[in-house]
Design brief:
The complex is a heterodimer of chains A (373) and B (347).
Chain A (H helix, E strand, L loop, with lengths): L7 H32 L30 H35 L3 H15 L3 H15 L7 E4 L2 E4 L2 E4 L1 E5 L3 H19 L3 H21 L3 E5 L2 E2 L4 E2 L2 E3 L1 H28 L2 H9 L4 H31 L11 H12 L2 H34 L1
Chain B lengths: L1 H23 L11 H8 L2 E5 L8 E2 L5 E2 L1 H14 L5 E5 L5 H6 L14 H5 L2 E3 L4 E3 L1 E6 L14 E5 L4 H12 L4 E5 L2 H9 L5 E5 H10 L5 E5 L5 E3 L2 E3 L3 H20 L6 H4 L5 H6 L6 H5 L5 H8 L3 H8 L29
Parallel strand pairs in B: 1-4, 8-9, 8-10
Antiparallel strand pairs in B: 2-3, 5-13, 6-12, 7-10, 7-11
Helix pairs in contact in B: 3-9, 3-13, 9-13
The chains are: A alpha+beta (373), B alpha/beta (347).
Chain lengths: 373, 347
């Protein structure tokens, strides 16, 4: 079937025509856009990114103030998008696995309630779920003055969740460096399967860390939130906006993750269970050694799609007022009028992120392929 | 079979190429620099940008009829261009859409509580004449005891994006060294809802919108604190590239202001045509020349006052005593009364 020489009329000509058509369409689009922009005396330039942004951003993982430039505002939005995406992906898998197991379990009540939950979250629009949770949080929770205190040091109000944090007093840098190095080394070794060495490194890290703690005379000081004139001050605050986005998106994504996990497990032929039992493995061993490695390989491609969906759905955070990349790009567009440039930045950013997710997942896919060989 | 398939493929390619040829002859088709007045006359109505929720400026009333200061401003433009206050259509726009809509020719004039600023003016649009002078303010529950800006330190404040308010908000925090926690939404309804549900201590927006909101919620007591002594001139805008239309919109707005200055209103405009005052005679077109200079009817100012009213009446209908909002005229009084509304000569 392999054709050695491509025939000109049947292969080269259509290719050239199609390629030429696509290029010509792109060129026509460019000419139209530049022509219409010239009519309106508009120019395309990314130079405005250096200008002062001037607008506030409600909350961010990275430090931002209105005197920073538009470029940093975009970076701040990107940081928030990454925080949302990473948190939602990890939490939705942690929640999705037990959901999938519950749907497969012989326990009738567990199976039915997990099924109802998964169908419910999968079949209602995410926007509505986000608005629902935002409404629940801001309407049902009390004002800061009459804060609800489920545990000592934790306060729930319509301004968010306020948690006591522990700060280290003294020079903690050597300790932080030691712990980071130890953690990275342990994880690397464990990933390569050298479990014995990993356990020695982790033990060593704990010993060195404890010695440093005593030698540097470090201490712990709790930062307890206290009521100011309007809001709680101090500690860590999770705003209702962030809480609503995380709650809504994690529940939504966990429904999809659960279905992928369930489908992956179900796709492994039942004969594999019989074969594993015939080898003398018990149920737990069969699952760990025979079923999961095969199911994992089936789950990875749909999981990649699911992660990219999580990234794209993070743009819906806008409706409950959480500032991620898309909403900051919209604001920038409004204040500068550079719509085309903002769209370009937006498209490039999301393409890169989605591409990164796909690359990472494909690398993982190749790894699992090696396991199952 | 193969032969037919190939033919089919060639056919598709030919169609594709034809479509492409059609596309590439498109560029430059819609030239917005053309005479807007001719376009409006051919179309038979003026297209105006409008808001949905800005009571007093542009919002549909209980009967679905558009009402407000900006709506009446637009009707004055329609009278100037076409002689009829009802030859106008309103296009509801969000804060984020409005300038793009004007730039792309979706609307002919944008009277939508848009503040005149350098960056906007330089960005392809021309601002005509302010039809309202507003300022940014914070509205806070009276039981909080806040009286001045420094009392807001540490407060959560609801702000709407896509407006100048968010920049003014950030400036207030910077100027006074306050820690203010913004809660930012992209539409009026969500922003107000968050404030009313208690998510924020204060709501930041134009003072006129705050007064309108306070009038709708009579049982709760609120204090309004100005963000600074800056004035925001809300100014109808047009696209770059059509000076005649720019002038027509300018003098349609001026007609409202000059009419008040000359003491002409809806009720006495007929009688005023018999006046001996040369300024009044020129204004009403009894002595011709003004309309012709703009390329429209000579009695356009007379028609505007007869069909829409003068500035005082328009203000009273939409924002003053007759509207229920009772916003004091403040800087929107005529210059001779100590305000900023400046009558320009109809000579």
């Amino acid at each position: 079937m392999v054709r050695r020489r491509h025939d000109f009329h049947r292969w080269w000509l259509p290719q050239l025509l199609l390629g030429g058509t696509v290029l010509a369409l792109l060129a026509a689009m460019a000419v139209t856009v530049t022509g219409n922009m010239a009519l309106r005396a508009m120019t395309v330039s990314l130079g405005f990114l250096d200008n002062t942004a001037r607008f506030p951003i409600a909350e961010s993982v990275m430090a931002y103030s209105p005197v920073d430039g538009f470029a940093w505002a975009f970076a701040t939005g990107l940081g928030n998008t990454l925080l949302l995406t990473a948190t939602i992906i990890v939490a939705s898998i942690l929640l999705g696995i037990p959901l999938a197991l519950a749907r497969r379990s012989g326990h009738l009540l567990a199976r039915l309630s997990a099924g109802a939950f998964v169908d419910g979250v999968r079949n209602t629009p995410l926007v509505i779920q986000l608005l629902f949770w935002y409404g629940v949080i801001t309407v049902s929770l009390p004002s800061p003055r009459s804060a609800f205190q489920p545990l000592s040091g934790i306060f729930l109000t319509d301004r968010g969740l306020h948690v006591t944090t522990l700060g280290i007093t003294g020079t903690a840098l050597p300790l932080v460096v030691t712990l980071t190095i130890g953690l990275v080394a342990t994880a690397t070794l464990a990933w390569r399967g050298r479990l014995h060495q990993a356990s020695i490194v982790s033990l060593g890290t704990v010993v060195v860390g404890a010695t440093l703690w005593l030698a540097l005379d470090l201490g712990l000081r709790p930062d307890v939130p206290r009521l100011g004139r309007y809001n709680f001050v101090g500690g860590l605050t999770v705003t209702p906006e962030l809480a609503a986005v995380l709650l809504g998106s994690v529940l939504y994504a966990s429904g999809f993750a659960a279905e992928i996990v369930r489908a992956g497990l179900a796709a492994v032929p039942a004969g594999q269970w019989d074969a594993a039992r015939a080898m003398g493995l018990n149920d737990r061993q069969s699952l760990r050694l025979v079923i999961v490695p095969q199911a994992l390989r089936i789950m990875l491609p749909p999981m990649t799609n699911q992660f990219v969906s999580v990234l794209k759905n993070s743009t819906l955070a806008l409706v409950v007022g959480y500032p991620e990349l898309n909403s900051i790009a919209n604001t920038t567009m409004n204040h500068t009028g550079h719509a085309l440039e903002c769209m370009l930045v937006l498209v490039l950013a999301y393409l890169t992120l989605a591409g990164g997710i796909s690359l990472a997942m494909n690398a993982l896919d190749r790894r699992t392929a090696r396991w199952t060989r | 079979m193969t032969g037919r398939l190939t033919t089919c493929r060639w056919g598709v390619l030919a169609l594709f190429c034809a479509a492409l040829a059609g596309c590439s002859s498109e560029p430059g088709r819609q030239a917005p620099g053309g005479p807007t007045l001719a376009e409006v006359r051919a179309r038979g109505y003026v297209r105006c940008g409008a808001g949905r929720d800005t009571v007093g400026f542009s919002a549909p009333d209980a009967h679905g009829r558009w009402r407000g200061l900006d709506v009446d401003t637009c009707r004055a433009v329609a009278v100037a261009a076409l002689g009829d206050r009802d030859k106008v259509r309103f296009v509801p726009l969000t804060g984020q859409q409005r300038i793009t809509a004007l730039l792309t020719g979706e609307i002919d004039v944008l009277p939508r509580t848009t503040t005149w600023t350098l960056q906007r003016d330089a960005g392809g649009i021309n601002f005509t004449i302010p039809n309202y002078y507003d300022f940014t303010a914070f509205m806070i529950r009276a039981d909080s005891g806040a009286r001045a800006l420094r009392d807001l330190d540490g407060a959560s404040i609801c702000v709407q994006t896509g407006s100048l308010t968010e920049i003014v908000f950030a400036d207030v925090a910077r100027r006074h060294g306050l820690t203010l926690h913004p809660v930012i939404f992209d539409n009026v309804q969500s922003t107000r809802q968050a404030f009313l549900s208690g998510r924020c201590d204060a709501l930041a927006t134009d003072q006129s919108a705050l007064v309108a909101l306070r009038a709708l919620e009579p049982d709760r007591r609120y204090t309004i604190i100005p963000a600074s002594d800056d004035i925001a001139p809300l100014t109808p805008a047009v696209r770059h590239g059509d000076d005649q239309w720019f002038d027509i919109v300018k003098f349609a707005i001026e007609a409202l202001i000059v009419a008040e200055h000359l003491g002409i209103d809806r009720d006495n405009v007929e009688a005023m045509r018999g006046s001996r005052d040369p300024a009044i005679r020129r204004f009403l077109g009894v002595e011709p020349g003004n309309g012709r200079a703009l390329g429209i009817r000579d009695d356009f100012a007379y028609q505007i006052v007869r069909q829409v009213g003068n500035y005082a009446q328009v203000y009273d209908d939409n924002l003053g005593a007759r509207s229920g909002l009772n916003i004091p005229r403040g800087p929107n009084r005529l210059r001779r009364d100590g305000g900023l509304m400046l009558p320009i000569g109809f000579y």
